[in-house]
């Protein structure tokens, strides 16, 4: 059960005014279903770290060559432990597919679990689609043009999708709904006449005048939430019932490679102590679960919290009295502090056994990114951050927005 207690203190040190997005009555809202894939969550760290590695590698070497695949052959396949899924209908008549929502990639594809059903609206392009997500996580298959329906009656005509003939790392889901910037689709289609970029689902909704703004917004439910479908993905606007106060926006960072993703600049503070300065670039990613900090920042965080690296779970662990003294962690983004309270920094204790932990211990949800800061991608805000803050991914204005929610300061963990 959740006990929600809202702090009434003013926690934002600075308020930046921003032009609100006009919300239509007919916003397209899709429930985000949260699902634990299998019996436990023991590979979250490996999954997040493999993903972080891939974000950096992808920009270093735009396309994966077959030689790379061979050198990766001895890496184990890591399927995602915790899935955030929306149902998308493709074809005419439509077939429903359960797709992972992914702000860190931009192609949409199906066929990992449920096979693609060709219908009267399916058109092959004679080209191939290939996207790499990690050391042993990829999709390869044929490109199709098809009709994609999201929720009630909102339909995209002529959406390019991938139809998987080979996948790794996608056990238990049908594919991906790519919500990242369109630039990430560069060179993903291979064939006689490949497009430079593949317009995303959001791009097409916008260009076909189905939504008023080229943006998506998200609300994630906490892991401990009893209702596994209380997350929400909204196309074309923001849903005022899902956040409180104002949405604070920040332009996409100019620092590469974070600039290729939903990247932002932030200053990170523990209590009143800066643990990295001045500003560092990172990204927001819905398929990263925890909050990743560059190795040197992670070590600084470990030092100020006094946490030890637990040898069984490999998570940072605190004693009860250290937890009682834990201070807030702040991401200052474009002048606004986004606070993670002590409770927002710890793994939900009800679920300690899922990560191989003991019931009476306190584990932290801050993980090591695997490289030191200064590489242009120094933190990743995963779903543990997004369950505390409403998020807006605004393609039109090249910015990311966050707002407080009823759960920002709640004691759910
Ligand atoms: C963000 O980008 C907009 C449009 O390019 C620009 O007008 C604005 O000054 C930028 N804001 C900041 C804080 O850099
Ligand atoms: C977690 O699940 C995996 C695969 O299902 C299994 O190999 C592992 O032993 C499990 N770990 C725990 C702590 O239950």
- Number of DSSP E strands: 24
Which structural class should the secondary elements be placed in? mainly beta
- Outline the low-pLDDT stretches: 1-25, 62-67
CATH topology of the largest domain: Cathepsin D, subunit A, domain 1
What is the residue-averaged pLDDT? Answer: 89
Supply the number of helical segments.
Answer: 7
Termini Cα gap: 10 Å
Tell me what the structure shows.
By secondary structure, the protein is mostly beta strands. It has 2 domains: 200 residues, Cathepsin D, subunit A, domain 1 (Beta Barrel), CATH 2.40.70.10; 162 residues, Beta Barrel (Cathepsin D, subunit A, domain 1), CATH 2.40.70.10. 13% of the residues lie in helices and 37% in strands. The strands form 3 sheets. The chain has a 7-stranded mixed beta sheet with strand order 19-18-13-14-22-15-21. A 6-stranded mixed beta barrel has the order 2-3-8-4-7-6. Strand 16 and strand 17 form a beta hairpin. The chain is globular, with a radius of gyration of 20 Å. The N terminus is likely disordered. The protein binds 2-acetamido-2-deoxy-beta-D-glucopyranose (2 copies). The site of one 2-acetamido-2-deoxy-beta-D-glucopyranose has 2 residues, from loops.
């Amino acid at each position: 059960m959740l006990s929600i207690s809202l702090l009434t203190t003013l926690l934002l040190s600075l308020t930046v005014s921003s032009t609100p997005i006009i919300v239509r009555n007919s916003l397209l809202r899709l429930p985000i279903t949260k699902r634990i894939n299998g019996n436990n969550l023991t590979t979250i760290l490996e999954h997040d770290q493999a993903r972080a590695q891939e974000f950096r590698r992808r920009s270093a070497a735009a396309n994966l060559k077959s030689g790379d695949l061979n050198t990766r052959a001895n890496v184990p396949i890591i399927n995602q432990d915790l899935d955030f899924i929306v149902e998308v209908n493709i074809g005419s008549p439509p077939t429903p597919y359960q797709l992972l929502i992914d702000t860190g990639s931009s192609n949409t594809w199906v066929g990992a679990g449920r096979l693609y059903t060709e219908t009267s609206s399916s058109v092959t392009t004679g080209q191939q689609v290939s996207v790499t997500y990690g050391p042993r996580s990829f999709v390869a298959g044929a490109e199709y043009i098809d009709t994609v329906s999201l929720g009630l009656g909102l339909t995209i005509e002529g959406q390019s999708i991938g139809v998987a003939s080979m996948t790794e790392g996608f056990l238990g889901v049908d594919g991906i709904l790519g919500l990242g910037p369109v630039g990430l689709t560069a060179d993903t289609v291979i064939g006689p006449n490949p497009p430079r970029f593949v317009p995303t689902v959001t791009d097409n909704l916008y260009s076909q005048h189905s939504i008023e703004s080229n943006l998506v917004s998200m609300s994630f439910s906490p892991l401990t939430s009893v209702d596994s479908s209380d997350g929400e993905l909204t196309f074309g606007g923001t849903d005022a019932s899902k956040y409180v106060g104002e949405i604070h926006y920040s332009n996409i960072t100019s620092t590469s490679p974070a600039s290729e993703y939903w990247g932002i600049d932030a200053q990170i503070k523990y209590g009143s102590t800066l643990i990295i300065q001045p500003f560092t670039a990172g990204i927001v990613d819905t398929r990263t679960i925890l909050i990743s900090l560059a190795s040197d920042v992670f070590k600084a965080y470990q030092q100020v919290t006094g946490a030890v690296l637990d040898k069984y779970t490999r998570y940072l662990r605190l004693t009860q009295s250290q937890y009682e003294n834990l201070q807030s962690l702040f991401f200052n983004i474009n002048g606004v502090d986004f606070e993670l309270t002590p409770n927002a920094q710890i793994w939900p204790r009800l679920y300690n056994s899922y990560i191989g932990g003991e019931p009476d211990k306190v584990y932290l949800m801050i993980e090591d990114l695997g490289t030191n800061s200064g590489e242009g991608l120094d933190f990743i805000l995963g779903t543990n951050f997004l369950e505390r803050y409403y998020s807006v991914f605004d393609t039109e204005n090249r910015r990311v927005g966050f707002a407080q929610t009823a759960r920002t300061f709640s004691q759910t963990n």
